[in-house]
């Protein structure tokens, strides 16, 4: 696995979901920081090992991110404090899914989980976000948390 160096510098929130640099993602080779992943790397998903089709990255001079405290979503979920973009989908299978969506499990935007204490909004300077794309929508494991990733877009 080689470091991904294709970074798009933007001052807007062009990525609607993403993982902050340093977030570890479960791969066939073990846990790897998201910034070291490359197109073609095989990621462990809820539906098996899947190859990354595209990686988008953005450096935001100032970003509003959601900080999820260690174990806020369950035992070692996340394994340590993690930051994600507000629209990052988090796959929830506990009382929160029932309370927020009326179902046993749901994908909920990180910002909707904010409680102001254990899951809170923070302003971060110089945040680098990475968004992974697969052939179809996938749920991956990032810092022990199930997060959603989008299907690869095809240029017409």
Labels describing this entry:
156 residues; mainly beta; seven-stranded mixed sheet; two-stranded antiparallel sheet; 2 helices
Question: What does it look like?
Answer:
The protein has 156 residues and is mainly beta. 7% of the residues lie in helices and 47% in strands. The longest helix has 7 residues. It is globular and about 35 Å long. The N terminus is likely disordered.
Secondary structure elements and pairings:
Layout: E1 8-9, E2 19-20, E3 24-27, E4 30-33, E5 42-45, E6 48-51, E7 54-68, E8 82-84, E9 89-92, H1 95-101, E10 106-109, H2 110-113, E11 119-134, E12 138-142, E13 145-151
Number of strands: 13
Helix content estimate: under 10%
- Compute the number of helices: 2
How do the SSEs run, as a string of H and E?
EEEEEEEEEHEHEEE
Low-confidence runs (pLDDT<50, min 5 residues)?
Answer: 1-13
- The overall average pLDDT, rounded, is 87
Main β-sheet description: 7 strands, mixed
Q: Shape from CA axes?
A: globular
- As a percent range, the share of strand residues is over 45%
Radius of gyration, in angstroms, nearest whole number? 15 Å
Calculate the terminal CA-CA distance, rounded to whole Å.
Answer: 29 Å
User: Structural class, from secondary structure content?
Assistant: mainly beta
Brief sketch in words of this structure:
This protein is 7% helix and 47% strand. With 156 residues, the chain is mostly beta strands.
């Amino acid at each position: 696995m080689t470091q991904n160096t294709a970074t798009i510098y933007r001052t807007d929130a062009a990525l609607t979901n993403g993982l902050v640099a340093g977030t570890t993602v479960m791969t066939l080779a073990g846990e790897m920081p998201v910034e070291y992943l490359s197109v073609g790397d095989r990621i462990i998903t809820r539906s098996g090992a899947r190859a990354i089709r595209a990686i988008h990255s953005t450096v935001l001079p100032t970003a509003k991110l959601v900080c999820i405290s260690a174990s806020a979503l369950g035992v070692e979920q996340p394994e340590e404090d993690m930051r994600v973009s507000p629209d990052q989908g988090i796959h929830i299978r506990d009382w929160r899914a029932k309370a927020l969506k009326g179902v046993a499990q749901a994908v909920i935007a990180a910002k909707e989980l904010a409680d102001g204490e254990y899951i809170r909004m923070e302003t971060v300077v110089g945040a680098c976000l990475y968004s992974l794309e697969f052939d179809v929508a996938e749920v991956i494991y990032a810092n022990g948390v199930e997060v959603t990733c989008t299907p690869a877009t095809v240029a017409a």
